[in-house]
From TrEMBL:
It comes from Paenibacillus crassostreae. Belongs to the 'phage' integrase family. This is Integrase. Residues 1-86 form the Core-binding (CB) domain. GO terms for molecular function: DNA binding. GO terms for biological process: DNA integration; DNA recombination.
Length: 303
C-alpha cells in the first residue's frame, strides 16, 4: 500500500474514532514528518518500512535538538500508525515496536514564590495604570492556572457558565472529554467575580468565554502561547520556562509539598493513572518523610 494513501487513511480513521482535533494535528505534524522522511528516502510503500527507517528518523530528530519526551511522543505516534496497518492486514508486524522508549529527565521545574510575585506585579502595574483589558486578562489567567492547575486547552475553553460562584466550583472538559467539577477557593472565586464585572463594563456584550482576545473572540492555543512567550521575554527567568504547563506543575508541586495525599492530588490534577501522580509526589512530597518519622524502627529503641 502506498505510504501517502495509508497516511491519509489513518488520519481518516482517527477522525472516525472521534479523536480530538488537537491529537489529529499532532499526528499530522509528527507522523507527517516521518512519512516525508520515508518518501524522501524512497520508501514509498508501507510494506517497505523497516526498523532502521524509524530509528534513523528519530536519530535525526534528536540531532535537531528533540528531547527525550518529544522523541517518545513521536515513537508512540509512529507505533499507532503501524499498528493500524497491522489491523488492516497491510503488514504482519509493527517494525516500530523494537524501537525503545528513551529515558526522560525526571526533573520538573516550577515557579518560586518570588517569580510568581514578579509576574503578577508586572500585570498588576499595567492593569492599574492603563485599565488595560489584556493585562487584566493575563493576570487572571495566571491566578486561575495557579489556583486550579487546569490545562491550557481547558483555560481557553473555559466559559462563564462553567463557573459556579455560589458553590465555588468550575467545570472543565479534560483529556478524556469527561466533564469534571473542581473546587475553587474563596480567593479565586472573588477574583473571578471582580474580573467578570470588569469584562461586562469593558465589552458591554460579554463573551461566553472567560478569556478572550482583543476583538472579544475566543482565545486559541497559539494566542495563549504568545502570551506566555511575551511574558517569558519580559521576566527573563533563567531556570524555568514560562508556560501554562509550568503553572500546572507549580500547582501540583504546592499540593505535594503541603502534605496532601496522593489520592487527593490525583483527583485535583485529574490524572487517569495514579502512577503519574506518584511520580510528582516522589519528587516533591513530604509523605515519605512523615511516614519515616512516624514508623522508623529507631523510634522504639532507647539509644
Amino acid at each position: 500500500m502506498l505510504l501517502k494513501f495509508a497516511y491519509q487513511d489513518f488520519l481518516d480513521d482517527r477522525r472516525f474514532r472521534n479523536t480530538t482535533e488537537k491529537n489529529i494535528r499532532n499526528y499530522q505534524t509528527m507522523l507527517g514528518a516521518f512519512v516525508e522522511y520515508c518518501i524522501h528516502h524512497e520508501v514509498v510503500s508501507v510494506e517497505d518500512i523497516a526498523y532502521n527507517h524509524v530509528r534513523q528518523h528519530l536519530m535525526e530528530c534528536q540531532e535537531r535538538g528533540n528531547k527525550a519526551g518529544s522523541i517518545n511522543t513521536k515513537i508512540m505516534r509512529i507505533r499507532a500508525f503501524l499498528n493500524y496497518m497491522v489491523e488492516c492486514e497491510v503488514i504482519t508486524k509493527n517494525p516500530a515496536k523494537r524501537v525503545k522508549m528513551q529515558k526522560e529527565d525526571v526533573k520538573t521545574n516550577v515557579f518560586s514564590d518570588e517569580q510568581i510575585r514578579q509576574m503578577l506585579n508586572f500585570y498588576r502595574r499595567i492593569k492599574q495604570r492603563d485599565k488595560n483589558y489584556v493585562a487584566y486578562r493575563d493576570y487572571m489567567m495566571i491566578v486561575t492556572l495557579l489556583g486550579t492547575g487546569i490545562r491550557r486547552g481547558e483555560i481557553i475553553n473555559l466559559k462563564w457558565s462553567d463557573i459556579d460562584f455560589i458553590n465555588q466550583t468550575i467545570a472543565v472538559f479534560g483529556k478524556s472529554r469527561r466533564r469534571d467539577t473542581l473546587p475553587i477557593t474563596d480567593k479565586l472565586s472573588k477574583e473571578l467575580a471582580a474580573y467578570n464585572i470588569f469584562c461586562k463594563q469593558h465589552w458591554g456584550d460579554l463573551s461566553d468565554y472567560v478569556f478572550v482576545k482583543r476583538d472579544n473572540t475566543q482565545m486559541t492555543e497559539n494566542s495563549l502561547m504568545l502570551v506566555f512567550k511575551y511574558l517569558g521575554q519580559k521576566m527573563n527567568f533563567i531556570d524555568v520556562r514560562v508556560s501554562a504547563h509550568t503553572f500546572r506543575h507549580t500547582f501540583c508541586h504546592r499540593l505535594a509539598m503541603s502534605g496532601m495525599s496522593a489520592v487527593a492530588i490525583q483527583k485535583l490534577m485529574r490524572h487517569q493513572n495514579i502512577t503519574v501522580t506518584m511520580r510528582y509526589v516522589s519528587m516533591w512530597g513530604n509523605e515519605l518523610r512523615l511516614e519515616n518519622d512516624k514508623y522508623n524502627p529507631l523510634n522504639s529503641l532507647n539509644i
